[in-house]
Specification:
Layout lengths: L1 H20 L6 H17 L15 H13 L3 H15 L1
Length: 91
Amino acid sequence: MKTIHAVAGIAAIILAAGCASAGSGGDTQSMNMDSGAGLWRSTCSHCHNLRGAQEFTAEQWPIIVSHMRTRADISKADAAAIQAYLVSLTD
């Protein structure tokens, strides 16, 4: 149940962030974070429940993403966007 609440909370944050930046034209970093968020939701949820970004440290996410890139055949660019997004949430 705790995981469901964490995922729901993260989804709400992502939705709010997406709505806030939708009409602004956004900068490159913002667009990368948006694509990282979308890739994280769509790619990672294919095989397992999404983990809350705060469950791991900024130092742990690169290792996890690297491992999952190999296992899930995620492109280097997509993995970089996912990693940047997850690390940004741990700061």
